Amino acid sequence: MVLSIYPSKIVLPQIYPTSPLLFDFLCHRFEKIPDHIWRQRFIDGKILDGNQQPLSIDALYVPQSTVYYFREVVDEIIIPFYEEIIYQDEELLVACKPHFLPVTPGGRFVKECLVYRLRAATGNDHVAPLHRLDRHTAGLVMFSMNPKTRSHYSALFSRGTITKKYLAMGYYSKQLDQRTWEVNNRIEQGQPWFLRHVVNGAPNAHSTIHLHQQQGDRASFVLQPHTGKTHQLRIHMSNLGFPIVNDRYYPTLQPEQADDYKQPLQLIAKQLQFKDPVTGKSHQFQSQRELL
After folding, report:
1. Does 282 reside within a domain?
2. 292 in a domain, yes or no?
């Protein structure tokens, strides 16, 4: 059994489930975890409130409250690829993540995630991600090293004052004169819960997609997300008719299988550019990873 040494956090949605109990919500939300496991976690004091105090199994569901819990898996897979620290100072760390490694604990991964590796490498338990990359995406991820200045760096993403560029290889069988697309639509949670889809409504996802070079039935693209919705670039590429090579989610969800390390998702977070809100320095970081 692998048990996380750090608690994971969930903010309870603004819903009113049929049962008033937090236990029932957790069993329903994490349906792959048997009910008896959640019951034992409550008994063992592994479910905590917003003040990180143990909750009893008869605790009520309170919308918008914070709950902490300790992840555990029976047999954790070791990801055989390694991150690289690109930059580090007292406030900020930038790392280049390999394909297949999650940024934070999730699902069958507890200790095999980028944030835990970086906490171990730096000896700093305050290391926290400022944004996320999908587990299957490689490239640059920024981390806060200091809780006191974290909000300043988080604001770079919430206010859109950081420039992000990605490289992607997509299927491209068309011959089009157009080489640049502005995609601006609304992305919401789909079914299953980990998928996203485009819906009608006020746009919340904006990307600029530029065709770089065609190579047979594929082409390389430079992508610039102006917002940061989950799976945004993967959905925008797929909806344009250029699904990213080795994407097992879009346009069609593929059956679950073990990771094929020889076929990583062809999407790389290549560049981050911004003005440091604490020091005033201009930063530009570049990943050395390339598409296959």
Report:
1. no
2. no
Domain total for the chain? 3
Q: Give the tens place of pLDDT for each residue, 16-61.
A: 778 999 999 999 988 888 999 999 999 999 999 999 999 999 999 9
Amino acid in the structure at residue 129: P
Q: Is residue 44 part of a domain?
A: yes
What contacts 93, CB < 8 A, 6 or more positions away? 85, 87, 118, 122, 127, 142, 143, 144, 145
Domain boundary among 73, 105, 135: 73
Tell me how far CA of residue 160 lies from CA of 59, 66, 154, 168, 181, in angstroms.
Answer: 39, 26, 10, 21, 19
**Distance between CA atoms of residues 17 and 15, nearest Å:** 6
Q: Are 49 and 88 found together in one domain?
A: no
Any bridge partners for residue 93, and if so which? 88, 143
107 and 25 in a single domain? The answer is: no
Q: What is the pTM of this model?
A: 0.85
On whether both 103 and 15 belong to a single domain, the answer is: no
Token pair 């992508």 is found at: 223
Question: Quick one: DSSP state of residue 157?
Answer: H
pLDDT in tens, 262-277: 999 999 999 999 999 9
* Residue 241 amino acid letter: G
Collapsing DSSP to helix, strand or coil, 282 comes out as strand
- pLDDT reading at 163 higher than 70: yes
Q: Which domain holds residue 220?
A: 165-267
Residue 83 and residue 101: Cα distance in Å, rounded? 9
Would 237 be classed as within a structural domain? Answer: yes
Tell me whether residue 217 is exposed, middle or buried, using C-beta atoms within 10 angstroms of its C-beta: 0 to 12, 13 to 18, 19 or more.
exposed
